[in-house]
Design brief:
The structure is a single chain. This protein is α+β, with helices and mostly antiparallel strands. The protein is 41% helix and 14% strand. The chain contains 4 helices and 3 strands; from the N terminus they run αβαββαα. Strands 1-3-2 form a 3-stranded antiparallel sheet, with helices on one face. The longest helix is centred in the N-terminal third of the chain and has 23 residues, at 2-24. The chain is elongated and about 80 Å long. The mean pLDDT is 84.
């Protein structure tokens, strides 16, 4: 009888441990503001960069991302066991984009098209010309 109780207890611990590990790997969402993420050119450039960065340096820890150009933000679904919010912000900075209060890397920022620069630097949408919609070619 004592052996059966001990066996049930050990099995319960194993099941609980396995469930805890599965829960730790559950994907999470983070929303990051970026003052210079306002146009479709910026979106295309950032998409290309994040695909390469995710495959090369982030163990494919970013599952998906959605860029809201009107709000100037990116929403990222990620696996916390593989990548952290700081890693995601660093990737944005290295691509030339601000991430919340962290400014973009200066060299990467200089390489951005003029429209993708901060409004203080003369970038962003021009009056009467929305840039959040890709022009029809």
């Amino acid at each position: 009888m004592l052996k059966k109780i001990a066996l049930v207890f050990v099995l319960g611990l194993i099941v609980h441990s396995a469930q805890s590990q599965v829960m730790a790997a559950r994907p999470q969402w983070v929303t990051i503001k970026s003052d210079n993420l306002k146009c479709w050119q910026c979106k295309e450039q950032l998409d290309k960069y994040l695909i390469i960065e995710n495959n090369a340096n982030m163990q494919k820890g970013m599952i998906q991302w959605k860029i809201n150009l009107l709000a100037g933000e990116i929403r990222v679904q990620y696996i916390p066991d593989r990548v952290s919010v700081d890693d995601i912000k660093t990737a944005l900075n290295n691509a030339g984009f601000d991430a919340d209060n962290e400014k973009a890397e200066p060299d990467a920022y200089q390489k951005l098209p003029p429209i993708c620069k901060r409004a203080a630097d003369g970038g962003g949408p021009q009056k009467g010309k929305p840039c959040h919609i890709q022009p029809i070619q």
